[in-house]
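Here is one chain, start to finish.
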Amino acid sequence: MPRHLAWLVDSGERQVTACRREIEIWELTPQDDEAVLSEWATHFRHHYIADEDLPIMVDGTGLTNAEYLRQTLLPDRTQVPGPSLRSGDFGEILVADYIEYVLGYWCPRELRYQERWNRNDSTKGCDVIGFKFSNDGQVSPEDELFIFEAKSGMSVSAKNRLQDAITDSDKDRLREAMSLNAIKQKFVTRDAMDEANRVKRFQNMADRPFRRINGAAAILDQAVFEATDPTTADASAHHNAANIRLIVIKGPSLMQLIHAIYDRAADEA
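Its structure:
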């Protein structure tokens, strides 16, 4: 488990939505630990490019590694919509870490960020997809497909981001097939057929039943959390309302943290 996840803790607090569904409240409390922050930045950079690919991609550009990452791959620090894309990617990657390392799902996500043509344009499709196999690789109706929608809120002007996540999560029933196809296709083009076949297992629920779980997460700066009432959220109209997990992750000065991680990701490459 990446060491930065020790800073993501279940507060034990639970709130209840307008539709009587439970909201888990988690806290992200980063510490002043240079080694862990450096590891976190490296983990973050690997979502955009593998270390072994960086030299050949930088070659010919006339840029340093840090300049290449800042100018070509990573969302911009100041130019709109770069900052909001940074916070959005941060929230998605944190939720992906949560479902992979805390909940135990297989969560292939780097390909989502590594093939962007425009560093300041978000990747379309389901935000985070996790897979769990209950019987050592054998197809079982107890296998699980977990699709999470993540929404970040770093400004006090943000509306109820948990409701936004729930609303967009309902659209995942239309995006699911395309997102699974995109993941599978990227594995096929890399000749990673074992991984492609693991994705294939979840492409036909009628013939190969499995459990589908949806999730909605709001990743909020502490000030935004204090100005928001998550209990007004309503998931009753969600297509998978009986199997939806709701979480809020809050933390202090998150945008400052996000910029610091991106800076390290570039400077330490």
